[in-house]
């Protein structure tokens, strides 16, 4: 089993890296193409739709997470009949929720255009774009998520990453071709995603028939016991949606669609490396859940080894993000879409949080600590919205980011860290100290690299050639120093590397 899990981790890493690189490249190209051929306002609506429809997740009420948690124990004990019942209960529940989502989505699509700052677009254009993208958002809830959860239980998340990655890449390529070469109307271009998602459902059917036979052959009644957990999980979903899906909505109403495009550009670039590390880590969610059931000590070791990888990744990538993001945005879509140094610092703090926190969430969720953590999670969401609304009028995008960072670093991070240390790790190890040390190291690295780039290598100006040279130099420097420090002073990371080499 240990060797199988190691092989799974290697597969997951390779697949995540390849999918990450390809999706990143094609998404950046598509954004540039959409801005060029359809305009900034259309791109703003497309980006805005992702945040609007993320609120539909609240209708799901955490069913997926609740059922996944309930499946861990019977799966570890090979009680396949019970897992089968839970799977059937999830399928039925998600289909009902998807239909409710559809009704709410259509209402939003035709009401929201009345309040948005439309720019060059008409009411009907915005409404139809939102409706098409809303359908694309809802279809996975009706067809795919239950199948994905079954694969997660079997620790086959890398297959989900592979299928979703290929599907997304195909959608992106076709959309780029339809816009740039054939100059097809945006409404027709967006329908391609709906078709691909429907085709993907058949691939998932084949995957679960091949990999989950032990569960599928059982014939039990639908089990809905996990539904009782959703009242606690939904609080966490509210916080997550507010954190990730509020700023563009506020900007679209109180500012303009160009600011939505600017905000989305930075968020998009930041999301790629975050998704890379989090996809690798998320493959361990089922493994960690089973280890909590089987052997808590082994689970704690896995936690520290995993979070050490995330911290190493942050120490290398966060300084790179700060030093290179504005140059990249300028070369990608234009200098008029760049932000000031204050915004970049806050973006970097958000980046650090989003790279580290998923490991903490995995540990928290494996213990089912939804109820214990829901109160401060809700307060973080409330404070985030209040501060964002207060600051946006005076400070614009900077104000939105500031509200998010204050709520995150003063409420969400310290309370979740304390809960995991107390209830899961049974340790007084201060995760906040690790975070503080990392931010200090990142600050020193930024000052040092900025001096080296300008005064020693004389790498100034903006061109793709200069950008690539600086990137290679800084990555090599940060990679060598950071890896050496971790291998020397972090025993969990050292053990992980030695075991991996063997």
Task: Provide an overview of this structure.
- It is a single chain.
- This protein is mostly helical and 502 residues long.
- It contains 21 helices and no strands.
- The longest helix is centred in the middle third of the chain and has 37 residues, at 296-332.
- The two termini are 16 Å apart.
Produce the secondary structure layout:
Elements (H helix, E strand, L loop, with lengths): L1 H36 L2 H15 L2 H4 L2 H14 L3 H32 L11 H21 L1 H9 L3 H24 L5 H26 L1 H4 L13 H16 L1 H8 L2 H26 L2 H10 L1 H37 L8 H26 L3 H26 L1 H27 L7 H26 L7 H26 L1 H11 L1
Helix pairs in contact: 1-2, 1-8, 1-13, 2-6, 2-12, 2-13, 4-5, 4-7, 4-14, 5-6, 5-7, 6-9, 7-9, 8-9, 11-17, 12-13, 12-17, 13-15, 13-16, 14-15, 14-16, 15-16, 15-19, 15-20, 15-21, 16-18, 17-18, 20-21
Key attributes of the depicted protein:
single chain, 502 residues, mainly alpha, 21 helices, 0% strand, globular
Query: Which sheet architecture does the biggest sheet show?
Result: none
Number of helices: 21
Bulk shape: globular
Q: Which structural class do the helices and strands define?
A: mainly alpha
Output the radius of gyration: 23 Å
Total beta-strand segments: 0
Residue fraction in strands: under 5%
Task: Provide the helix percentage.
Answer: over 70%
**End-to-end distance, in Å?**
16 Å
Mean pLDDT: 86
Compressed to H and E, one letter per element, the order equals HHHHHHHHHHHHHHHHHHHHH
Q: Which stretches are low in confidence, meaning pLDDT under 50 for 5 or more residues running?
A: none
């Amino acid at each position: 089993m240990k060797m199988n899990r190691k092989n799974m981790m290697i597969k997951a890493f390779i697949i995540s890296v390849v999918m990450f690189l390809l999706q990143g490249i094609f998404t950046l190209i598509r954004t540039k193409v959409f801005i060029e051929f359809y305009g900034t306002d259309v791109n703003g609506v497309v980006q805005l739709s992702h945040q609007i429809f993320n609120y539909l997740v609240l209708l799901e009420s955490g069913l997926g997470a609740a059922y996944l948690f309930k499946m861990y124990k019977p799966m570890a004990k090979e009680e396949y009949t019970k897992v089968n019942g839970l799977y059937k209960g999830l399928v039925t529940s998600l289909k009902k929720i998807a239909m409710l989502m559809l009704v709410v989505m259509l209402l939003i699509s035709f009401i929201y255009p009345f309040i948005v700052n439309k720019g060059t677009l008409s009411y009907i254009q915005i409404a139809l774009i939102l409706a098409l993208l809303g359908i694309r958002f809802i279809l996975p809830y009706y067809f795919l998520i239950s199948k994905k959860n079954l694969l997660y239980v079997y620790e086959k998340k890398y297959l989900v990453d592979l299928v979703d990655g290929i599907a997304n890449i195909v959608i992106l390529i076709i959309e780029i071709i339809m816009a740039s070469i054939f100059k097809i109307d945006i409404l027709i271009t967006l329908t391609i995603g709906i078709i691909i998602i429907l085709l993907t459902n058949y691939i998932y059917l084949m995957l679960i028939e091949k990999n989950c036979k032990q569960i599928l052959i059982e014939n039990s009644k639908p089990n809905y016991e996990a539904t009782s957990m959703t009242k606690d999980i939904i609080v966490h979903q509210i916080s997550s949606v507010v954190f990730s899906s509020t700023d563009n909505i506020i900007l679209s109403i109180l500012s303009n669609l160009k600011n939505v495009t600017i905000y989305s550009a930075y968020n998009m670039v930041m999301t790629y490396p975050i998704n890379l590390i989090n996809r690798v880590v998320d493959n361990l969610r089922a493994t960690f859940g089973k280890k909590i059931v089987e052997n808590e000590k082994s689970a704690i070791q896995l936690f520290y080894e995993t979070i050490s990888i995330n911290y190493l990744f942050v120490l290398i990538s966060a300084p790179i993000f700060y030093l290179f993001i504005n140059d990249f945005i300028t070369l990608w879509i234009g200098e008029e879409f760049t932000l000031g140094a204050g915004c970049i610092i806050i973006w970097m703090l958000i980046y650090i949080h989003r790279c580290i926190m998923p490991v903490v969430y995995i540990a928290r969720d494996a213990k089912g600590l939804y109820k214990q953590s829901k109160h401060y999670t809700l307060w973080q969401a409330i404070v985030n919205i209040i501060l964002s609304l207060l600051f946006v009028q005076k400070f614009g995008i900077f104000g939105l980011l500031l509200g998010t960072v204050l709520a995150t670093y003063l409420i969400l991070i310290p309370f979740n860290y304390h809960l995991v240390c107390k209830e899961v790790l049974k340790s007084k190890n201060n995760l906040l100290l690790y975070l503080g040390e990392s931010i200090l190291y990142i600050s020193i690295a930024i000052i040092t690299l900025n001096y080296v780039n300008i005064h020693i290598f004389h790498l100034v100006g903006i061109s793709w050639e200069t950008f690539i040279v600086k990137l290679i130099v800084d990555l090599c420097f940060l990679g060598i120093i950071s890896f050496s420090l971790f291998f020397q002073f972090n025993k969990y990371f050292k053990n992980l590397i030695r075991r991996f080499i063997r």
